Amino acid sequence: MQKNEVYTAVASGTGTEGEAIFRVGDTSVFVPFCIEGEEAEIQILSVKGGVAYGKCLRVTKPAQSRVEPRCPLFAKCGGCQLQHMRYDAQLELKRSLVAATLKKIGGMEAEVLPTHPSAMQYGYRNKLVLPVGTDVQGNTVVGFYAPRSHRIVPAEDCPIQSPWCADVIAVVKAYMRANCLKGYDELTRKGDIRRVAVREVGGRYIVALVAAHNVNAAPFADMLKERLGECAVLLNINKSQGNAIFGDDWRTVRGEGFFEAEDMGIKFRAGANTFLQVNEGVRNDLYRQIVAEAADGGAVAIDLYSGGGMLTAMLARACKAAYGVEVVKEASICADELKNLNSLSGRMFNICGKVEEQLSHVFQLTASERRVIVCDPPRKGMERSAVEAVRESGADKIILVSCNPATLARDLGILLGSLKEEDGALKKNPDYAATSAYSIEYIRPYDMFPQTKWCETLVLLSKKPDSHINVTVEFGEGEGQISLKEVEKRAEARKPKEKVTYKMIQQYIEENYGFKVHTAYIAEVKRNLGLPMYDAPNAVEELKRPRSHPTEKMVLAIKETLAHFEII
Prior knowledge:
The chain is α+β, with helices and mostly antiparallel strands. Among the domains are: 1-66, CATH 2.40.50.140; 127-263, CATH 2.40.50.1070; 502-564, no CATH class. It has 14 helices and 23 strands. It has helices at 87-106, 165-178, 218-228, 280-295, 310-318, 329-341, 355-365, 384-393, 405-416, 432-435, 484-493, 502-513, 519-528, 552-564; strands at 6-14, 20-24, 27-31, 39-48, 51-61, 127-134, 140-145, 152-154, 193-201, 204-211, 231-237, 249-254, 258-263, 266-271, 300-304, 321-326, 348-352, 371-375, 397-402, 419-422, 425-428, 438-446, 456-463. Helix 2 runs antiparallel to helix 3 (218-228) and helix 4 (280-295) crosses helix 5 (310-318). It is globular, with a radius of gyration of 26 Å. 38% of the residues are buried.
């Protein structure tokens, strides 16, 4: 098999990114925007060993679940991956991907319930981040990033965004034309406007114009008010060379910079940088389930990675009390404001600090209570020390929420013991069920992001009753005895493989691909795949220059090398 060769084949599986897997001879070819079971004409883009990546030229025998994508930019823009699939097929795909990831990464054979659907499959997003940049000719471009790149695909609208998206794009273009402003070029670091961020809160809009330097944003605010109605408009000046959405310099252009609103009975203040789930309907369904499980039996809830405290407040209202633990000081301050706004003093307690350092303290404060841990970490998952702290806590229930099946599988595997550390690496432990202190009550994906490969997943763990069994065994080769030879044979089969070092990965890539990769690039790819990570001695040192990222060519080489060493 060579690059650019064309084959006609039938997709026989689905990859972890939602792409179809075609078998051509002995080679697995991963092709996006195709569906398992359909025949397609595919072109090979790259190949190494038994793995190749391709693109679909045309579908010759479509699957019954194939539909016409609603968006004309589908497959060009990187926002959606599943618009070509009927919605019920999307739900089943996400369920099966969660199950497959738990098995592949976490070593768990776990039943996964059907995916909880979204009432809105389009127009559900209440948040918009709109990149503004330049094309190769230097012309200003407003739109969305292409897959795996920072190249902006020009857009007039987006079907998964709320209907006001088209108005915002039109206003941005008109404002920049009228004021002779240019899009920001990330390579030359020249230009004026970098992006626009919009958050809808109860029919009102918080809009942040992100610029590379001070600009007159008053005309922008006037044009937005004419199109959208009530708006709070802020100017954010971001002079950084990295990929951070916002800089530290905020200036209010119109309004107070925030709105007060109420959601599920909780009053809150939302600003441009406030975290709220993008799909209000599914978010509320998910939060109701979490609160119901946590409040069952009159428990005290402990909300880890609590952010601005929205879920903590809901838990405080339904449970005996709720403790939120959040490391970001600004978010913890917002949680205290939320507590006061909802008169939850004495029921809601916000603690600023690391989970692994504060969890034992919270357990000391609640020593006589039944306790439920709720854990909703960021996409990168939990810190290893935090997972260990949760596992050793002895909580009566553990409720996990994750937007990344890969990191969920890793964290859940450590919690249950299906992953155990051996020689500095996590190894699968098939006998974990007998020794785990917790059992899985259920696992259910929630379709927070229709038309995309992403989903939220809710996992409920319950503590097993304390018990012990005395077992007497007799070794030997006779009937009813345990064979030492068989024990030795099994031990040899489960003997850990040689630890694969970054140096080995670098050497393999240089020998087989002809270029070098930095260890930071390997770490980034491993992190994105949800693989176990370990802190480097200099991990907390201040960066001397902006962090760069591996090219698509490097990412492919690293993934194929990880596959060669059987890490993935």
